[in-house]
Amino acid sequence: MAHEGSILTAADLAGNGARGDDPDVHGKFGIFGGRYVPEALIPALDEVAAVYEKAKNDAQFLREFDHLLRTYAGRPTTLTDVQRFSEQAGGARVVLKREDLTHTGAHKINNVLGQALLTKRLGKKRVIAETGAGQHGVATATAAALLGLECVIYMGAVDCERQALNVARMKLLGATVVPVTNGSQTLKDAINEAFRDWVTNVDTTHYLFGTVAGPHPFPEIVRDFARIIGVEARRQILELTGRLPDAVCAAVGGGSNAIGAFHAFIGDEGVQLHGYEAAGRGLESGEHALTLTAGSVGVLHGARTYVLQDDEGQTIESHSISAGLDYPGVGPEHAWLRDSGRATYHGVTDDQAMAAFSLLARTEGIIPAIESSHALAGALELGRELGPEATILVNLSGRGDKDMGTAMKYFNL
Amino acid sequence: MTTLQTVFAKAKADNRAALVGYLPAGFPSKDGAIAAATTLVEAGCDVIEIGLPYSDPLMDGPTIQDAVHRSLVNGTRIADVMRTVEGVAATGAATLVMTYWNPIDKYGAERFARDLANAGGAGTITPDLTPEESEPWRAASAGAGIDTVFLVAPSSTEQRIKAVVDCCTGFVYAASLMGVTGARESVNVAAEGLVQRTRAHTDLPVCVGLGVGTGAQAAEVAAYADGVIVGSAFIRRILDAPDEAAGRESIAVLAKDMAKGVRR
């Protein structure tokens, strides 16, 4: 555990696998996951899997990762009891896991530090990454600067425009930002372009994947590096309240912050797990990112999972006010948790998310990321359902500074 | 003998490589694709691959992305792909569909295999379907009597090459380079080694694709491969032509040059 002088253990990364919560050798979570990629990439994926398998059981790697998490990312992050906010949640006790307080302002730093260390072990000097909101891009550029790696970020041209501040941050950190102008010019197209780069430059380059989607072993590796969120939170909430929470809430785009928050609780049967997807302008409008709630099973970006697609398997473009949730796929482990019933997934509209965004700012003096605001909105409703005896842990995955442009427009500030 | 076996046997008897042309369905238009593919056959292509346009073509370079995007904007559906196959197969050329996996997955493997066979299609090339995930598709294809072609790459280990060729019928597609589709200045020297390594594991014909754009390059590849696959170079010419008829004239010139190349 990452506290009181002890360091991360392999168990903190990977869990115990006892409940089928680890994929099989082909990277399958039930029927989900696997690898649907050009054969040219298979050796690289095998190499990443092998190097990771070794690293996660290597005390030296765990020490290095733990050191960076503490002295660079600012872990452990605290829990915050939000009493005034809780009054709007039917009096249920809402407790926030403050990933917004990490360096770079979002949970993404956990995964990128782990994968940047892995890049060194792979003997590669260049990293590429996709980014939607820009948070994963900024985090990757940060880790690349820290560890002296060349860094190229693919970002949809539409996203570059709505997240101009993050583009500037990445450039300042020494990264090259490539605007992607094909397709919907958002996250899914940035991922396509990053895969094209990877297949061309795989000898020198690691694809520092930003979420728990994509081909095996990315869903497993990214989850393991994000898992620290739930590992810490579980220990902290036991210290704070003397018992496990009744529910854990998190926003779901690709699903990395949610899986990071959920995973340490999967074995705790009394703890409900709730994921909140972006319902955008509402299900009926067709402008949403409700992959798990309204999508169907298919293959996107190398894995079998739930996908927004038409009757012939063409990807349907998603919509959300939050760039980080604007993705028509989702990590295969979430697909598996959904179908097994262990986790429940809901939709939160742009308007509901923005109301929660504003409420947290006014009641607690915390400006959350719009992504995280989806989980807050979910917790407000869930609290009214569960009642005043309940404790609800919400993963506040990031801070809202990057969203000021959107907020100014939305609220006419 | 299957259509593909006949094609490769004939090419071998002529002591030359087969010429394989790729065009997406629905490009430059639904009927235009059938006409363009027919032009390729008349100019000397032995095999035609009809691309099934997909929204997320992560193995394709800018030229094919552009063509596929236009095709989707034209409203191309799987029924149009089947109609294109039917039209092209009527010329007597062995006609395959090249597609990412998800459209088949969603359409239903058995239904797709049956419809393709009924359209006269010879089989499929599925660049993102790995041996590990291929069993349902191989079973459906075998049931419908169509071939399944998969890809090997320069990065493939011996073990992977064996796993891939064990899933192939018809021929094996050797990707000449590490990268996406698109014509290149020169064909990667790694291609020849990959063909040799592949032959060690199979008696199936081995065709080379990715980066072939001129008759001279076709000749170079034909010296060591059983087939030469050309896509982006044809598409580039159609994209650059002022109209469909001019596009057909232009690809006919290139295809004839390539057909000479594989006979050198």
TrEMBL record, chain B:
Residues of the active site: 49 (proton acceptor), 60 (proton acceptor)
EC number(s) recorded for this UniProt protein: 4.2.1.20
Pathway assignment: Amino-acid biosynthesis; L-tryptophan biosynthesis; L-tryptophan from chorismate: step 5/5
Enzyme class (EC, first level): lyase
Keywords, ordered alphabetically: Amino-acid biosynthesis, Aromatic amino acid biosynthesis, Lyase, Tryptophan biosynthesis
SUPFAM superfamilies on file: Ribulose-phoshate binding barrel
Reaction catalysis annotation: (1S,2R)-1-C-(indol-3-yl)glycerol 3-phosphate + L-serine = D-glyceraldehyde 3-phosphate + L-tryptophan + H2O
Gene3D superfamilies tied to this protein: Aldolase class I
Short name of one Pfam family: Trp_syntA
Cellular component GO terms, alphabetical: cytosol
Molecular function via GO: tryptophan synthase activity
Alphabetized HAMAP family for the sequence: Trp_synth_alpha (MF_00131)
Subunit annotation: Tetramer of two alpha and two beta chains.
Function: The alpha subunit is responsible for the aldol cleavage of indoleglycerol phosphate to indole and glyceraldehyde 3-phosphate.
Family membership: Belongs to the TrpA family.
Protein name, per record: Tryptophan synthase alpha chain
Taxonomy of the source species: Bacteria, Bacillati, Actinomycetota, Actinomycetes, Streptosporangiales
